[in-house]
Amino acid sequence: MLDIVLIVLGVVFLLVGLVGCILPVLPGPPISYVGLLMLHFTNKHQFSSDFLIMWAVIAIGVTILDNVIPVWGTKKYGGSKKAIWGSILGLIAGLIFFPPFGIIIGPFAGAVIGEMIDGKNGYDAFRSGFGAFMGFLGGTILKLTASGLIIFLFFKELI
């Protein structure tokens, strides 16, 4: 009975982790990793310590990279701190007011507006917005890949 509860909790964590790969308020890969741990704590499905440590490092590393990549993308394309903050605020506003497309449009528009407030011309603002968008997209793809692999490993072990 406890195994069934742990497996169901594991699936819930996997799903919440997957959603967290898109929503900026939830750390997707670490939550997905907790789902993998739930399966490990059952009596029938065990992972090696090395396997669990490796995936913990991957989940934490991807989460850290997800915070660095958008900033790097914005800076690489000439963005300022206002573009970075605009990108973050644009993402949040996009999620609230224009779901699901706001996830894509919000960071771009926020970075452009941030650069315009900072006094940059349209071309430079657009370029910074593109960098913010590419950084956000890269981080999201990285998180989705990590969580997707964790989900695959969960069900591979379960079946």
Describe this structure in words.
With 159 residues, the chain is mainly alpha-helical. The protein has one domain. Helices cover 82% and strands 0% of the residues. The protein contains six helices and no strands. The chain has helices spanning 2-20, 28-40, 49-76, 81-97, 102-117, 122-158. The longest helix has 37 residues, at 122-158. It starts with a helix and ends with a helix.
Question: What is the topological layout?
Answer:
Layout lengths: L1 H19 L7 H13 L8 H28 L4 H17 L4 H16 L4 H37 L1
Helix pairs in contact: 1-2, 2-3, 2-6, 3-6, 4-5, 5-6
Key features?
6 helices; 159 residues; mainly alpha
In brief:
With 159 residues, this protein is mainly α. The protein has six helices and no strands.
Which outline best applies?
elongated
Intertermini distance: 18 Å
Domain count: the total is 1
Helix content: over 70%
If helices are DSSP runs of H or I spanning 4 or more residues, what is the number of helices? 6
Question: Beta fraction of the residues?
Answer: under 5%
Unreliable segments of 5+ consecutive residues: none
> What structural class is derived from the secondary structure elements?
mainly alpha
How many DSSP E strands?
0
Mean pLDDT: 89
Following the backbone from N to C, one meets helices and strands in this order, namely: HHHHHH
Rg over alpha carbons: 18 Å
Main sheet summary: none
